């Protein structure tokens, strides 16, 4: 057995097992990021390690791959903790309540989803980060949508669709730069070539959200909105100065300051503005029964690290809008850094599994028949799309779904006389955007934690993310804008 290569049925065993366990987990626990989901990844990793050892793969090589993969997500883990801290300080400082307050005043339910997608796209193009967009304005949009009675899954779909469109089209985006670099394409040539598939996908998405909004029936009256506004303004000091904090974060990211540094500054500014504008709230949540500076600091630390829930306000707003008991949500709530720990554990378990299947050459075994199958241009691009989605499912990492398929199909594209722009566009259309649709992928797990919504709840409404790979397949099938090598 030591001289044999891993066969395809054996290579597929841990992946099929993982998918089976995760499906069972979703059915039983209604979530892929519960502790059972993490256990599913560990069980599949152990099976993969056993297969590798049977085929004489060195334990040191497996361990090295696991360490390497965990190292790659350390920036994302830090970012997750900062997002948790930022959501806490932006809640107690009144920034998120102010966004909800002015949003309820300005936004019309008929055009709400349409506007959410557009604003999310603009901010994401400017910042180059879908994660930062969703963690800032996305949370506020979700609160506004919930308040006016739009299901959270639909609102999250509009936020994510806009954010990922902007992420793809921004020259500041890490994934856009990575896709261009892996395929050896000029960055702006890559973006220009993506426009052919990306813009039609987003236009269709906007039309769908506009139709949903126009046909959405809401019984919310202006009197109810006024009542909700009074509830918020009676608790928080609401003013336009609070918007300086999110504007500062956006400006930092536009100026190429890293997301980690920008969100750290945003968290600190949130704490400062909380001390300036919301001292009564800070004294209330400090649990020290004293009105001094130590109480203010204690309240900020509580918000950054732990749970903050203005339950009475949430209850009052739910009652104003007559939201049924089983559908009620917490508009003004944050779990801080503590709320991100479950997602962080899931990402670590996912990277363990990813390292195991990478080091045991299981992915190589699976990819060979796919490349042999892809002879025509449409089959090649179709196989490329399927492989990117497959890597998002199995490696649980967005970057892996770009890098590995990008390198794997490079020679095949050249053999078929296809320009590398086709490859870079395909891996972005199918790798970048579908990562957020996989519950156990680092992107899916993160956005589920940030928005507080199960991935499978928002998945059906992420129209842009679903349409992007389909549009690529349509373009390849009918040979639309398929650039040839000179």
Q: Roughly how many Å is the radius of gyration? A: 23 Å
| Tally of structural domains | 2
How many DSSP helices? 25
Shape: globular
Strand order of the largest sheet: 1-2
Following the backbone from N to C, one meets helices and strands in this order, namely HHHHHHHHHHHHHHHEHEHHHHHHHHH
How is the secondary structure organized here?
Layout: H1 8-29, H2 35-54, H3 59-72, H4 74-92, H5 95-106, H6 112-127, H7 130-147, H8 152-169, H9 174-182, H10 187-215, H11 222-235, H12 244-254, H13 259-277, H14 279-285, H15 293-305, E1 308-309, H16 311-320, E2 333-334, H17 341-359, H18 362-373, H19 377-394, H20 398-408, H21 410-415, H22 420-432, H23 442-451, H24 455-458, H25 463-477
Antiparallel strand pairs: 1-2
Helix pairs in contact: 1-2, 2-17, 3-17, 4-13, 4-15, 5-7, 5-11, 6-7, 6-8, 6-10, 7-8, 7-23, 8-10, 9-20, 9-22, 10-22, 10-25, 11-16, 12-13, 13-15, 14-15, 17-23, 18-19, 19-20, 19-22, 19-25, 20-22, 22-25
Description:
- This protein is an all-alpha fold and 486 residues long.
- The protein has two domains: 8-72 and 342-477, no CATH class; 75-338, no CATH class.
- Helix content is 74%, strand content 1%.
- It contains 25 helices and two strands.
- It has helices at 8-29, 35-54, 59-72, 74-92, 95-106, 112-127, 130-147, 152-169, 174-182, 187-215, 222-235, 244-254, 259-277, 279-285, 293-305, 311-320, 341-359, 362-373, 377-394, 398-408, 410-415, 420-432, 442-451, 455-458, 463-477; strands at residues 308-309, 333-334.
- The chain has a two-stranded antiparallel ribbon with strand order 1-2.
- Helix 10 runs parallel beside helix 22 (420-432).
- The model has no long low-confidence stretch (mean pLDDT 86).
